[in-house]
Design a protein that fits this description.
There is one protein chain. By secondary structure, the protein is of the alpha+beta class. The chain is built from eleven helices and ten strands. The protein has a six-stranded mixed barrel. Helix 2 (15-52) packs across helix 9, helix 7 runs parallel beside helix 10 (361-387) and helix 8 (297-305) packs across helix 11. The longest helix has 41 residues, at 254-294.
Length: 400
């Protein structure tokens, strides 16, 4: 009879002991998978917080006559820890063929101010909720603009209409109106406000549209978004070294700072629980296997007396444990997949977050591989006292 057949026969004969070991394996694996799923969820949320935190370094030109340019943008792009850049520009232009809300006579008639952003959702009055979009959509391309609704009513402009502008050097550029906005303070302005400074005459567009009107790259501000918020200060220091006294450098990571500590606390507590569960499981299973092997001294002695090699006896006992562990791990994984996602979603720290399951094939195989390796070590430690002794020594202990 081979060692595999002997293993199956032993499990059938000792159903009670096999069931007890199976249940201990099941509880241990289930608890470990539960702690691992929380660790996985907290790591996911942590990565998402970093991506959505919009932690950034801002560069603003100190001298209005020495604006930031393409060389400055390239210098920033080559730094490490840069996720994306939002260029912010501003230029005065003249309305070509449509009326404005006129201001003070001391200002230039027909002049508007155009603000450009690579991403208007950030670093603009729309992000700060100073301006709110009331119709249409935000700018998503070079040939699109968002204008004030009061200006639209003044010129009977509709969404989809094309407006033309003249730059300071005579450049003529057109864009399609895709949205209307209001800031709520249009009626509170005095007559002394210049035309180009009136709230109704502020046009919001893409940075490339402003550059086409300007004829050269000039930026009032550059927002540099970082990939790793933990290294924000280091990135700001690198930028300060590059630009010296040319720009004012500021940082903003309020969102990340508010949320990261709660996630880190959950990770620390979960790692501690994970370690305690693992150590407790190893201790309990190891103790049980030691008692189990002690009760099998007679069986081990019989095997040795029959001339069965020690390695075959060891393989049989390892196979018995691995067989029970595999069944327990499979059952714990199936039940965990049904319970853990809903349980994690109910936790306050993860509420409202989309958490993908930890139970990939690779992760489950890792748990199984680590578990079987530990079992082989524990079985080896439990059987070592008997495998090191001669057959006559084991028989004498049995007689004593």
């Amino acid at each position: 009879m081979t060692w595999m057949k002997r293993a199956f026969c032993y499990i059938r004969r000792k159903r009670g002991k096999a069931l007890l070991l199976f249940l201990i394996f099941f509880v241990s694996v289930f608890a470990i998978l539960g702690a691992w799923s929380v660790l996985h969820a907290s790591a996911q949320v942590g990565r998402r917080i970093k991506e959505d935190s919009n932690s950034k370094v801002t560069l603003e030109s100190i001298n209005q006559e020495q604006m930031l340019d393409a060389v400055d943008v390239d210098a920033v792009k080559h730094l490490q820890n840069i996720a994306r850049i939002n260029r912010v520009s501003q230029i005065g232009a003249y309305a070509n063929g449509f009326p404005l809300v006129e201001g003070s006579e001391e200002g230039e008639a027909g002049k508007v101010t155009i603000h450009g952003y690579d991403d208007m959702k950030h670093d603009s009055p729309f992000e700060e909720q100073v301006c709110r979009l009331v119709e249409g959509s935000q700018v998503s391309g070079k040939g699109e603009i968002v204008i004030n609704r009061v200006l639209a009513e003044c010129g009977q402009i509709k969404i989809g209409d094309e407006l033309s502008f003249l730059g300071e050097r005579g450049q003529k550029v057109s864009a399609v109106v895709v949205g209307f906005y209001l800031n709520g303070n249009e009626n509170s302005q005095t007559d002394a406000v210049y035309t180009e400074n009136r709230m109704e005459n502020q046009i919001y567009a893409d940075t490339d549209f402003v550059l086409a009107l300007c004829g050269e790259e000039q930026y009032q501000k550059i927002a540099v978004y970082v990939a790793e918020p933990d290294h924000l200060k280091q990135t700001a220091e690198e930028i300060e070294q590059i630009f010296a006294d040319k720009v004012n450098v500021g940082t903003l990571d309020t969102v990340y700072q508010k949320l990261k500590y709660s996630i880190q606390q959950i990770e620390r507590v979960t790692r501690l629980i994970f370690a305690l569960i693992g150590l407790t499981s190893v201790f309990i299973i190891g103790s049980l296997l030691c008692m189990w092997m002690r009760n099998r001294k007679t069986e081990i002695a019989v095997y040795f007396s029959m001339g069965i090699a020690r390695k075959n006896v060891f393989a049989q006992m390892c196979f018995e444990c691995i067989l029970l562990f595999t069944g327990a791990a499979a059952a714990a994984s199936v039940i965990g997949l049904c319970i853990f996602p809903a349980w994690i979603s109910a936790l306050d720290a993860f509420r409202g977050q989309e958490i993908s399951s930890f139970a990939s094939v690779g992760n489950l195989l890792s748990v199984w591989g680590i578990g079987t390796a530990l079992l082989a070590v524990l079985v080896g430690l439990a059987t070592a006292p008997y495998f090191r002794k001669q057959l006559k020594d084991i028989l004498s202990e049995m007689e004593g």
